[in-house]
Amino acid sequence: MILLLLIAAVTLVVLFIKQRFNYWKVRGVPYANPTFPLGNLWGTGTKQHLSEVLEDLYFKLKGNALFGGIYFFINPVVLALDLDFIKTILVKDFNSFHDRSIYFNEKDDPLTAHLFTMEGIKWKNMRVKLTPTFTSGKMKMMLPIVRDCADELERCIVKETAGGGEIELKDILARFTTDVIGNCAFGLECNSLRDPNAEFRTMGRDVFDLRGLGFVKLLLTQQFRTLSRALGAVTLTPSVSKFFLKTVSDNIEYREKNKIERNDFMDLMIKLKNGQALEQGSTDQQLGTLSVKEVAAQAFVFFFAGFETSSTLMSFCLYELALNQNLQDKARKDVLDTISKHGSLSYEAVHEMKYLEKCIYEGLRKYPPASNIFRTATQDYNVPGTSLTIEKGTSVMIPTLAIHHDPEFYPDPMKFDPDRFNSDQVAARHPFAFLAFGEGPRICIGLRFGLMQARIGLATLLKNFHFKLGTQMTGPPKLEPSSAILMIKGGLWMKVEKIGA
Fold it and tell me: Quick check: helix, strand or coil at residue 92?
């Protein structure tokens, strides 16, 4: 009897899996053949980055269909293939796709319940609250903090190159952005550039360390979110959660007790905690106040979304400028001419460096740090112009890296060419052919800040140093497979020479 029950159970499981793996076939959607148990995720996190896997699937399925069908484990997933369809998902019919397919657990893992992962009305209210913190006026107030950190970056590289030889720049750039975010989001001198093992830098490494079972756990919790919450699954290590919660709590208590104001992100968050309007006519008070845990969660997402993405962007830009010396010279001239005109690295000067800006955007095009966009159908959705329905709860993947590498939109896509972002070329392209920051109501809220710190960091480096590829940098840079974002595997090794030394 036990044997018969076991056979029956196995048979039912096999039939269920076969039915799941026929999901796209019976609906007449072009699909990639899955294999149990990973579906179309074989090699992800070990041999290839997720964005590379999706890029391969994108080019296999792209044709006349608006989207293709793929599988994450046994779950059917929509892979968007058409730019007009992507525009519909992100903008026109946003109300049917306003949530991301990202796992969070507000009860057991409170730092994960932040603006990037929040859903529904909670997300909308938080977005309204936080939007005034990222205006151009607020960026101007934070610029001196970023510039001071850039000066420390210059001193750090001078020290690191004193003995000659090659240096690994990726970690140094991550230490720079850690210091920037630590100052702006937490009001703390992190001193990562002076001490590579400073606590903030250590915690930053831990957040993105997905080696071993970490990457598999991340995928599983995202694909089985309801079950994961029921089981109390957490994605952050206890030491990281404890550190950030204590840091924010102590910071708030100290500032309020001593009436300290620094014109930084934490100042703005404290005002929200206390129900104070950030700008005249704001509706913040109508939306309620924030708890200390909510403040900590928003400060945490500012930290992890800001330091690694910007340092990665700067790394890839420097790699390409070192590979293309003529472009490096042109970018340096843009920086030096603009600083000479303005007299300093002011807010106005930073935004007038148009060729440097094009280099940054081309870096974001070729190596978008956030290389995929996640959405979930929040209700059954009838795809316009078809008889197809995307069922409620189905994940939608928009493969940013694949779109940015599509020769239909960018001829010779692996060539680094900042002139792609000349105004005439931008105007001639489909507006959704560039998705480095997302689009629509959930476009990256911190894009101004991220671009500002990348501009200031790169301008400082190009003004003071000349970069050549190190002997370890042979061939195109390989991506770290298990990283949550695009990251150079093995680091960025450079020969760096001080200009005028």
Answer: helix
Containing 4, the helix (H) or strand (E) segment is: helix 2-21
Please give the Cα distance from 370 to 4 (Å, whole number): 49
Place of tokens 């360390």: 209
Element (H, E) at 271: helix 265-273
The residues, any chain, with a CB within 8 Å of residue 12's CB and separated by 6 or more, are none
- Alpha-carbon torsion 308, 451, 301, 273, what sign? positive
Which residues does residue 69 pair with via DSSP β-bridges, in sequence order? 31, 78
Q: Which two tokens stand for residue 385?
A: 């112009």
Residues 6+ apart with CB under 8 A from 17: 36, 74
CA distance 89 to 106: 26
Strands 493-498, 167-168: pairing kind = antiparallel
Mean pLDDT of the chain: 90
Q: Per residue, what are the HEC states of 128-143?
A: HHHHHHHCHHHHHHHH
Report how far residue 386's alpha carbon sits from residue 154's, in angstroms, rounded to the nearest whole number: 56
Q: From the CA atom positions of the chain, what is the Rg in Å?
A: 23
**Residue 281: what pLDDT?**
52
By C-alpha distance, which of 33, 75, 74 is closest to 57? Answer: 33
DSSP assignment, residue 188? -
Contact 478, 164 (CB under 8 A): no
Q: What is the largest CA-CA distance in the chain?
A: 87
Kindly report the three-state secondary structure assignment for every residue of 205-270. Answer: HHHHCCCCCHHHHHHHHHHCHHHHHHCCCCCCCHHHHHHHHHHHHHHHHHHHHHCCCCCCHHHHHH
Task: Give DSSP secondary structure letters for 302-355.
Answer: HHHHHHHHHHHHHHHHHHHHHH-HHHHHHHHHHHHHHHHHHSS--HHHHTT-HH
Tell me how far apart the alpha carbons of residues 230 and 188 are, in angstroms, rounded to a whole number. 36
* pTM exceeding 0.90: yes
Q: Is the dihedral of CA 400, 112, 47, 44 positive or negative?
A: negative
Is there a contact between 247 and 186 (Cβ–Cβ < 8 Å)?
Answer: yes
Angle at 311 between CA 332 and CA 171, to 5 degrees: 105
**Residue 93: φ, ψ to 5°:** -110, 40
> Token pair 């590289």 is at which residue?
157
Single-letter residue type at 235: T
Give 47-78 pLDDT, tens digit per residue: 999 999 999 999 999 998 999 999 999 999 99
Q: How far apart are CA 158 and CA 149, in angstroms?
A: 14
pLDDT band at 284 (very low <50, low <70, confident <90, very high): very low
- Please tell me whether residue 236 adopts helix, strand or coil conformation: coil
- Give one word for 491, left, alpha or beta, with left for phi > 0 and alpha for psi -120 to 50: left
The 3-state DSSP class for residue 467 equals strand
Strand order in the sheet with 465-469: 167-168, 493-498, 465-469
Edge-first strand listing for the sheet containing 67-72: 67-72, 75-80, 395-398, 373-376
